[in-house]
Amino acid sequence: MSTSPVSLSPEIQDLIIDVLRHRVGKDERAAKPHDWYTATVLSLRDKIIDSWMESTRRTYADGGKRVYYLSLEFLIGRLLRDALSNLDLTHEMAQALKQHGLDLAVLEDLEPDAALGNGGLGRLAACFMESLASLDIPAYGYGIRYVNGMFRQRIDDGWQVELPETWLSHGNPWEFDRRESAYHIGFGGEVVEANGGVKWHPDEVIEASAVDTPVVGWRGKRVNTLRLWTAHALDPIRLDAFNAGDHVAALESDARADSLVRVLYPADSTPAGQELRLRQEYFFSSASIQDIVRRHIQYEKNIRTLPDKAAIQLNDTHPAVAVAELMRLLVDDYGLEFDEAWDVTSRTVAYTNHTLLPEALESWPLPLFERLLPRHMQIIYAINSRVLRDARKAGLDDLAISAISLIDEGGERRVRMANLAFAGAHSVNGVAALHTELMKETVFSDLHKLYPGKINNKTNGVTPRRWLMQCNPGLTGVIKDAIGDAFLDDTEKLQDLNALAGDAQLGERIAEVKRSNKLVLADHIKALTGVRVDPDALFDVQIKRIHEYKRQLLNLIETVALYDQIRSHPEKDWVPRVKIFGGKAAPTYHNAKLIIKLANDIARRINSDPSVGGLLKVVFIPNYNVTLAERIIPAADLSEQISTAGMEASGTGNMKFALNGALTIGTLDGANIEIKDKVGDDNIFIFGLTADEVAARRLDSYNPRDVIENSSELLQAVDAISNGVFSPGEPERYRELMDGLYDHDWFMVAADFDAYAGCQRAVDQLWTDQASWRKKAIHNIANVGWFSSDRTISEYAREIWGVM
Ligand SMILES: *Cc1c(COP(=O)(O)O)cnc(C)c1O
């Protein structure tokens, strides 16, 4: 067993006091808990720095290739527990703090949850950063340091209210301000011919400067850097205006720069369609590419060797403009011929697609793009003419050629970012097997014909450090006792649990851990919502972004149907259930916000109805984020993964739940399919239409009205909601939402309802046989080790980046 290369000196208590006095500026008698938190992080950070510098030196000495992960989102969550655990210093730090009368867990709770992302895509980037460090791969993550990240969700009278998240209000002891690593980012202006070449003269220039956060890998093997860009005006203040008394105008350019890094666009899988969003994308892509090129030139001198030393991964199309930016630097600044620049660019860049939803395929109005980035527009035209020439040569027809074009010519002309990313990358990957196949058949079918072999699959994963060891120490301990600790370094070793699945004692111990996690969650639910839940009930959980394709509505309608059933047949042996919901809706997504209100309306009615006798409770836990997920997932019995088949690219929540011993109820969508393959058909509850069947029924005349009218349970539930049973103060509140089910039901809620409800009764049946339930839970834990992001990153490293 390797020991941590970083160790706290025996005088850690003294170190904390020293930091508290000299860096925080507080006497230990006057220090507030937050001062102690800051001193703890700074002390730990000092220890990390040595290993960070060591990692950097080693990379330079090896002359190795680096991975650059460009992502507009990093859903990091808290870092203190993660860093302590990965360095194996948790116990030592807790002891040291105890000497000062402090509880580490209390200090950990003071850390704000860094939510620089919306959902799965951003959390994937965070898991990947941790796995890159754990696998000892030199890597930088590049993104934006949003001053306000994801909004904080408050529930007022059942409605979502969005509040700014002020995660930086007490400063951020993890980060290093690197004002010396700064770049000029231009916007607008014009392109002029100058001695044989062209030169872009932007009419606005903003400075991007780096803020670095160390990312500690498992057992401290390596510390990598998350480099987030912040913006400054070149002239922060116009003194003439200020002195003339116009204080606001004097500070205008600083406000303009600040606006670039102020907010994370809070839409999940739909482009914001705003100029500021395009400016953000270019700002961070340009700063990152300039930084990558500068580092390469500093050590290699020759820009032509860039693909040997740098692998740039684009997390979705948000950084796709990086393709044009790299081309611009190579051609305009380094004087490469266009063809050679294209070769260097495409051998360096790879692209990950995250969604097939047509409304989420990013494109920008051409006039806007051209006004903001005139030189990049020229380069995109040049790339396009090359791509279209290839397409003609390959004998593709006009329809295929217009689908491949980087410019959408239909109606208002737009620049298609996915086509730019696809053309400019040597690898284009999907994030689960089904998603990758659908990419080939649908959105990218023509590009796939032109560039066969570019599309490949890399099924997502999650880091087992955060999503098992740290969030569920109880379960981790039981597993260690059962099979030893090899699984800590290789999650697939969890398979050794399969042989013990029938061991009643192990089943008992795992059930005890689950129960104590449920007790903790029950207390939290009481504190947050006022609802008392029974820890012996089945905890049935759906936590994720609120979106129609994820079908929280299917779950809610089934909840209403179950409520009706319990009231009609109180004599039956109903399994006590707690239905737990959590998730944020994009502020402009009307139906998603209405679904949150519906969940809260249903909860209020059911929770106060004595006739269900506590057999059914419904809770909506506000402000779903990484920290809350870490608390809820270890306490879940049932994981709801019920998206309309063909619409969830992968899902990663599904993996976290199974790893913590919840059974899945789900459709054959995204990574659910691969989870089913791993855990076995008997250990998962699968229902509903397949992706092919969904596609066929949409073409064929799907008539949801007939379906609803032929299912008495569904009809009763939909009518109750529609007629205001859950919204007596506003009976029409859900009329339109329910009419949508009758009229088109794009997401196949009605089509899948009976299968889903039937499957839920099979879940009840199994719950009454706890021995069988526990056995299946063990098979889940045992067989989902493959969904570690270490496995995912190893595949990227070998098959895309060439770094392993
Ligand atoms: C894992 C995770 C997600 C992704 O969940 P899905 O169920 O895959 O959509 C979103 N948000 C948070 C906070 C997460 O931890």
From TrEMBL:
Q: Which domain of life is it from?
A: Bacteria
Catalytic reactions on record: [(1->4)-alpha-D-glucosyl](n) + phosphate = [(1->4)-alpha-D-glucosyl](n-1) + alpha-D-glucose 1-phosphate
Q: Name one Pfam family in it.
A: Phosphorylase
Q: Which UniProt keywords apply?
A: Carbohydrate metabolism, Glycogen metabolism, Glycosyltransferase, Phosphoprotein, Pyridoxal phosphate, Transferase
* EC id: 2.4.1.1
Q: Which residues carry this modification: N6-(pyridoxal phosphate)lysine?
A: 656
InterPro entries xrefs: Glycg_phsphrylas, Glyco_trans_35, Pyridoxal_P_attach_site
Q: Name one GO cellular component term.
A: cytoplasm
Q: Name one GO biological process term.
A: glycogen catabolic process
UniProt similarity note: Belongs to the glycogen phosphorylase family.
Q: Which NCBIfam families does the annotation name?
A: P_ylase (TIGR02093)
Q: What role does it play?
A: Allosteric enzyme that catalyzes the rate-limiting step in glycogen catabolism, the phosphorolytic cleavage of glycogen to produce glucose-1-phosphate, and plays a central role in maintaining cellular and organismal glucose homeostasis. Phosphorylase is an important allosteric enzyme in carbohydrate metabolism. Enzymes from different sources differ in their regulatory mechanisms and in their natural substrates. However, all known phosphorylases share catalytic and structural properties.
How is this protein named in the record? Alpha-1,4 glucan phosphorylase
What organism, scientifically named, is this protein from?
Alteraurantiacibacter aestuarii
Identify the gene encoding this protein.
glgP
